[in-house]
């Protein structure tokens, strides 16, 4: 069996290899005013390998860049998405689009794809991919919510967790928090007990003015790494630059 691996592309966009299959998460390949990765984009759409499936957690542009991803060479690639993404994906020419509600699952080439709960500013799901003894948990933007405690109970051991850590708050909405912060991500790590955890969604910036007037976020993933040492000492936390492939 080929090794399970993850390659960060940027932000919450990754290539996940599991069970001999390759999945893309939350595509983001462009920028627009107020939405900047804050780090390199390691691969262009044209440079992507052949994909077996695509996971999209919610419809926000920095997780669902369908205008750019529509240039992918095969728009019959299976997309597994939050319900709100179905219409936009089909309008962009993708022909195989499946909405997954929390705890619903499908099989693709020996990999089980299960949607799991989430809470964000808009409707969102997270995902678990399992093949054999390996399982990858992918969270796009979620907060830490009680429903996530069900993941290990229902789905078993998680090998790799990909978690947001910037604690994004919206200043004009009374500093409403919409993404888990470093300490909350460490709590979730202690709950899931993965062998490896990789933080993401921390470099994102809305630019000089946007970060001061609209978005308040923690851009330092070391805070999550330090918090996890205390709460989840059995998990190895690795901060991964875009373009780096990490094998389990």
Description:
With 248 residues, the chain is an alpha/beta fold. It has six helices and 17 strands. The strands form three sheets. It has a seven-stranded mixed β-sheet with strand order 6-5-4-3-2-1-17. A hairpin with a 5-residue loop joins strand 12 (169-170) and strand 13. The radius of gyration is 17 Å and the shape is globular.
Brief descriptors of the model:
alpha/beta, seven-stranded mixed beta sheet, 18% helix, 6 helices, single chain, 248 residues, 17 strands
Distance between the termini: 13 Å
Rounded average pLDDT = 97
Measured on Cα atoms, how large is the radius of gyration? 17 Å
Q: Name the overall outline.
A: globular
Strand content: 25-35%
Specify the number of helices.
6
Instruction: Identify low-pLDDT runs.
Output: none
Main sheet, how many strands, which sense, barrel?
Answer: 7 strands, mixed
Give the SSE map.
Layout: E1 5-10, E2 13-18, E3 21-25, E4 53-56, H1 66-69, E5 79-81, H2 86-91, E6 97-99, E7 105-108, E8 111-116, E9 126-131, E10 134-138, H3 150-155, E11 160-164, E12 169-170, E13 176-177, H4 182-192, E14 196-200, H5 207-213, E15 215-216, H6 222-231, E16 236-237, E17 245-247
Parallel strand pairs: 3-4, 4-5, 5-6, 10-11, 11-14, 14-16
Antiparallel strand pairs: 1-2, 1-17, 2-3, 7-8, 8-9, 9-10, 12-13, 12-15
Helix pairs in contact: 4-6
């Amino acid at each position: 069996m080929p090794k399970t691996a993850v390659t960060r592309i940027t932000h919450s966009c990754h290539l996940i290899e599991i069970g001999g299959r390759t999945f893309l998460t939350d595509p983001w390949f462009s920028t627009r005013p107020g939405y900047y990765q804050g780090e390199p984009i390691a691969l262009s759409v044209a440079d992507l390998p052949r994909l077996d499936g695509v996971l999209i957690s919610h419809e926000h542009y920095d997780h669902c860049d369908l205008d750019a991803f529509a240039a992918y060479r095969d728009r019959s690639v299976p997309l597994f998405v939050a319900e709100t993404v179905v219409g936009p994906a089909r309008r962009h020419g993708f022909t195989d689009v499946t909405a997954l509600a929390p705890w619903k699952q499908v099989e693709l080439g020996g990999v089980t794809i299960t949607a799991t709960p989430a809470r964000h500013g808009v409707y969102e799901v997270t995902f678990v991919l399992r093949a054999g003894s390996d399982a990858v948990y992918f969270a796009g933007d979620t907060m830490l919510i009680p429903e996530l405690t069900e993941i290990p109970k229902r789905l078993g051991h998680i090998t790799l967790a990909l978690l947001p850590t910037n604690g994004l708050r919206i200043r004009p909405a009374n500093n409403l928090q919409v993404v888990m912060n470093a300490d909350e991500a460490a709590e979730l790590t202690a709950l899931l007990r993965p062998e490896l955890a990789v933080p993401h969604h921390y470099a994102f910036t809305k630019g000089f003015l946007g970060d001061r007037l609209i978005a308040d976020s923690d851009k330092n993933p070391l805070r999550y790494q330090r918090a996890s040492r205390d709460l989840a000492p059995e998990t190895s936390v690795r901060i991964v630059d875009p373009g780096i492939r990490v094998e389990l």
